[in-house]
Specification:
Arc Repressor Mutant, subunit A, 3 domains, two-stranded antiparallel ribbon, 220 residues, single chain, mainly alpha
């Protein structure tokens, strides 16, 4: 959709702009007409128009071809791109793009407010991204720590000694076909708090096997 503006801004800097001061007055006039045409029928500095209509609007349709080429080439030095495309019926369309159109044609105060707003939004977005990244990093570290504690707890649980019952001891002694007295063995280690010397018992079956030695049948 076209901008349909009834005006366009000409900055006073054009009086000292070296790109403009080096051009012929006719080219400057064409540039002003082109800007007005873009403001009215273009969109954000972009305009597509039949080539003949463009030349008529710039008042150069009857000029010699070499003069037309010179003016169009000079306009291109003002950051105006021109692309031609031949359509059906041999109508040549010209697509113009004036660089930095929004920057120079917006209301100064409005443009500044938008610029500051966008800058603030960008900073806020960057801040939120960094905050989110830090939160994700903390959550990931927390998950790793919890997994580590869970594994350690599981490992400790698997290594935690569970005192056997008298029935378990009897069944194991029967399986081993030894002469260890289950009641005496159980009573002995219950009294010691399931300590083997200064170390907590880890494997009660190994403890039973140590009593299978002839000298340990009736004494510890």
């Amino acid at each position: 959709m076209a901008d349909n503006k009834q005006w366009f801004k000409v900055w006073t800097s054009m009086l000292t702009d070296p790109n403009l001061s080096s051009l012929h007055n006719q080219t400057v006039g064409c540039w002003l007409r082109l800007c007005a045409l873009t403001a009215q029928h273009g969109t954000d500095g972009k305009l597509t128009i039949p080539q003949h209509q463009l030349l008529v609007t710039l008042h150069i349709s009857t000029a010699p071809q070499n003069e037309i080429d010179q003016i169009l080439n000079e306009l291109k030095t003002l950051n105006i791109s021109m692309d031609e495309e031949v359509q059906k019926g041999c109508v040549t369309l010209v697509t113009l793009q004036i660089v930095n159109w929004a920057k120079y044609q917006a209301y100064s105060e409005s443009f500044e407010r938008v610029r500051k707003f966008r800058k603030l939004e960008k900073e806020r977005y960057t801040c939120n991204v960094e905050k989110k990244r830090r939160e994700e990093k903390r959550r990931e570290e927390k998950r790793k720590e919890e997994n580590k504690k869970r594994k350690e707890s599981k490992r400790e649980g698997s290594q935690r000694f569970l005192p056997p019952t008298l029935e378990e001891i009897k069944a194991y002694c029967l399986e081993r076909k030894n002469q260890v007295n289950p009641e005496k063995w159980l009573s002995h280690y219950q009294t010691k708090g399931w300590m083997v010397g200064n170390t907590k018992m880890v494997d009660w079956r190994a403890g039973v096997r140590t009593w299978e030695e002839p000298k340990r049948i009736w004494e510890d």
